[in-house]
From TrEMBL:
Keywords: Methyltransferase, Transferase. Residues 1-72 form the Methyltransferase type domain. Residues 88-151 are annotated as: Disordered. The keyword 4Fe-4S does not apply. Coiled coil: none annotated. One of its GO terms (biological process) is tRNA wobble uridine modification. Transmembrane segments: none annotated. This is ALKB8 protein.
């Protein structure tokens, strides 16, 4: 059984005869202790506070039976790890297009006023903390009236909290297409013909951050923690 915040994506599952329903990751309408296994792929990095991210992990653990396992993937701050670039950085379409020189401006939106949290179909892409917290490790500190940087597609991340621009193909949505279905580099010919551009909130995780959040819950134990193509990943077991 699958669930997603996007009705359009859930409808696609239904058309393919898969079981899926719309729900919020903070409140999944499934009985406690009823799942042998759960997966959360590219969801938790859309929640805008450490408390909400932890609550999402706690909700995932609630669904598991004792001995059940969960797999969590979130985007990594480190898109170059052990001297290897992630697929996200490599997929720069071969050329150093001006298309890549996109909106490195700053969104005039306080953290408290972000896009609704949502699940998505992402593959690895991340960035590190706001203008006044330079890249000095990954201490999460609240910043009053902070501005979120807008990420440049297919580049390394410089902020943990940021907005990623998504350009919708065509000007109109096709059936079952969500606002983040198709991504064009801003400045490209295609993107100039498109409207609108959506900005989605991401919190990208530093090494050890996801694992530390999981270890703070006494109802689970971390079986495994690893890096995979620009993502930090954890396998949990319900105690």
């Amino acid at each position: 059984v699958g669930c997603d915040r996007s009705k359009n994506l859930v409808d696609i599952c239904g058309e393919k005869n898969f079981q899926a329903f719309v729900c919020d990751a903070l409140s999944v309408p499934i009985r406690s202790g009823s799942c042998d296994a759960c997966i959360s792929i590219a969801v938790i990095h859309h929640f805008s506070t450490a408390e909400r991210r932890l609550a999402t992990i706690r909700e995932l653990a609630r669904l598991l039976r004792p001995g059940g396992t969960a797999l969590i993937y979130v985007w990594a701050m480190e898109q170059e790890y052990k001297n290897q670039k992630s697929k996200y950085l490599k997929e720069k379409n071969g050329s150093k297009d001006k298309a890549e020189e996109i909106s490195t401006g700053v969104a005039q939106r306080p953290l408290s006023d972000q896009m609704p949290d949502s699940s998505s179909q992402d593959s690895a892409c991340p960035d590190q903390l706001l203008n006044d917290s330079k890249d000095e490790g990954c201490d999460e500190k609240p910043v009053a009236d902070s501005r979120l940087p807008v990420h440049t597609n297919r580049t390394s991340f410089h902020s943990q909290d940021l907005l990623v621009p998504w350009h919708l193909k065509g000007g109109t949505k096709m059936k079952g297409e969500s606002a983040d279905t198709v991504l064009f580099p801003a400045g490209s010919k295609e993107s100039q013909e498109l409207s609108p551009v959506f900005h989605r909130y991401y919190h990208v995780f530093c090494e050890g951050e996801l694992e530390a959040a999981c270890r703070s819950l006494d109802c689970v134990r971390v079986q495994k923690s690893y890096y995979d193509q620009g993502n930090w990943c954890v396998v949990l077991e319900k105690l």
